[in-house]
Design brief:
Two copies of one chain form a homodimer. With about 375 residues, chain A is an alpha/beta fold. Chain A has one domain: Vaccinia Virus protein VP39 (Rossmann fold, 3-Layer(aba) Sandwich), CATH 3.40.50.150. Chain A is built from ten helices and 17 strands. Chains A, B: It catalyses: L-arginyl-[protein] + S-adenosyl-L-methionine = N(omega)-methyl-L-arginyl-[protein] + S-adenosyl-L-homocysteine + H(+).
């Protein structure tokens, strides 16, 4: 018995001069790496949310036609079939589709689940009957990294019945200022003194590097220095590709205690529909207070620190826009707003004027019978 | 204050069709990533071994001329300067050399340590005086990955005085059969049942993938199923580039109990010289029984499992050879030997015949006054 092994593992190299095709190739081949799938399947909050949302809402799936956009190993398709779906069209552009097909057969769902090896953009529904439900785990870092939502929107417009259901049905991006204590201790302050020597010149370089791109890391809930704010909410039933391309949000929030603000933490949550209107909808949240997921949180490290006293109001304008050179990436712009800037209405900052306006608007909303969401 | 961030982080893509220049470029740029340096500096067994070996042997450094090959951030050069070196020539091919120069200045060693931004192959010693000591942390996974030893050998041949010292002075590669229980539990058996479904088709694919290339992972000492064997020892004072290019080792070892052998674990250790002959030399070991390092262990997963009873003898031939297409990579070939194969002499397998020969050879060695190393 011989084992012949070549160690061809190489240092990673970033692709530059990316074209649309290149971006797609790199995106789809990366998903063939089974380690990524193990990571995702092993992410219990992620996979269990879908499992509960699907299996505890069998009425939404029983005898229905389902589409799974970007099915990966096919786990969501299996849940849907288990929940009684009559037919599941499972679309997967990467070669993992071949493995998904084997898994489906191994679990005896080949009469229900059909795996298609293509991009959803190229998919044609057999006998052009539309589907009742679209399930998809399309979320990337800070919700939109990799822009898979574009494909889900296209699938909805082309293939979902008017009366159909999106799984998940809503998604929101949140932002909150943070002192980033854990990140600083581990990755930045390390460089102050290394084995007794002054390495502070490295600290400055590392910090500058970290400020150039969003950092994917775990932020502890205690590191948030104010209340979180919603940057953007998407209703999956009617969001458009245009809505996702570029958006911004301005918010003011007040510091809970004497603290320091070194960055903005972004995270997201997703809401799943329920068959019973009365029931609380199931939410998959990647907030710092929730069990950790493979998405962790996304951190924008600010170029300068902001000292805060209890009650101090800080304002931010956050703008996300798809990169012109690679639509799967986003430019994220964070602007710290000055005191003179107008606050939005309503505003959660806690200043007397904003409090008053907010209370007034809530009362109006309640009179109008609108649902009031207050995350402050 | 504005923070403008583009998320250009892309999935890693392996370089194919590598040429010599490509290999070097990819190798040297990867070291500019400061995260890698943080990982290495944070590796206490690694950095503290060098620190102790240098600072507890001041006599070897006092007023000496030292060369640091591949100095990185310059930490070993700082140790050498602290130990009293008159001059340290610190050679670094990647751009981290610029940072090393700043660190040296920040710590007021600019009169002792001189950082050169070049490959050691292109270095010319000012006023061509040779050096007393060469320090270098050149070790890669399974000792030789990245083949930096070639550069250290060249530096020794060109720049070290005949009476000079190599730091470290010896290096050894070890091999040991293992049941790989931890690896199987986490990365292989996971695929048996995923969220209640049979994913065993993936298990086979993952296992085949893992068998194609060496796995860098932490093996627990309890997962070794026999005694370790030395694959190769290098004396840094006289090892040649030819010695490193290709070598093999045949060994037989016996199972300690009823067990299973699923792979061969490789690791290495390095020995540092001491000023006093009587003192135990300091050893940096990356063995499973030692505190974990960033090198972890290297595992060759066998294509088929071998069942073992207590006392069963298993034989392996392990061959390492630099890849023809990229000299920084190695082909590792493991051959399981049949019972009929001749055992080497001496052999640690424990069979009566081998025990007898080994005892006889040891007695002969002792009579001849040779040092006897027995790791069984």
């Amino acid at each position: 018995m011989k084992s012949n092994i070549t160690d061809e593992s190489d240092e990673s190299s970033d692709c530059s001069d990316t074209t649309e095709t290149d971006c797609n190739t790199s995106y789809f081949t990366s998903y063939e790496n089974l380690e990524v799938h193990r990571l995702m399947l092993n992410d219990r909050p992620r996979t269990e949310s879908y499992r509960h949302a699907i299996l505890q809402n069998r009425a939404l799936f029983q005898d229905k036609i389902v589409m799974d956009v970007g099915c990966g190993t096919g786990i969501l398709s299996l849940f849907a079939a288990e929940a009684g779906a009559r037919k599941v069209f499972s679309i997967e552009a990467s070669n993992i589709s071949l493995i998904a097909r084997d898994i489906v057969r191994q679990n005896n769902f080949q009469n229900i689940i059909e795996v298609f090896s293509c991009q959803v953009e190229d998919f044609i529904l057999p006998n052009s009957e539309k589907v009742d439900v679209i399930i998809s785990e399309w979320m990337g870092f800070y919700l939109l990294h990799e822009s898979m939502l574009d494909s889900v929107i296209l699938a909805r417009d082309r293939f979902l019945k008017d009366s159909g259901t999106m799984f998940p049905s809503k998604a929101s991006i949140y932002a909150c200022p943070s002192n980033l204590n854990g990140f600083y201790e581990q990755e930045i302050d390390f460089w102050d003194t290394v084995h007794g020597y002054d390495f502070s010149v490295v600290k400055q370089i590392v910090l500058q590097n970290k400020q150039q791109s969003p950092q994917i890391l775990s932020v502890d809930n205690s590191e948030l220095v104010a209340g979180p704010e919603i940057v953007k909410q998407f209703n999956l039933m009617n969001v458009t590709v245009e809505d996702v391309k570029q958006f911004q949000s301005k918010f003011f929030t007040s510091s809970m205690e004497k603290n320091i603000c070194r960055g903005i933490v972004l995270w997201f949550d997703c809401e799943f529909p329920t068959e019973l209107k009365s029931e609380n909808s199931l939410i998959l949240s990647t907030a710092p207070r929730c069990p950790p997921t493979h998405w962790k949180q996304t951190v924008i490290v600010l170029p300068t620190e902001i000292s805060l006293q209890a009650g101090d109001v800080i304002g931010f304008n956050i703008k996300l826009s798809q990169s012109a050179t690679n639509h799967r990436h986003y430019n994220i712009q964070v602007e710290v707003l000055s005191d003179e800037e107008d606050h939005p209405m309503p505003c959660n900052c806690g200043l007397a004027r904003c409090k008053l306006i907010k209370t007034f608007m809530q009362e109006q909303d309640e009179l109008d019978g609108n649902e009031v969401i207050d995350i402050s």
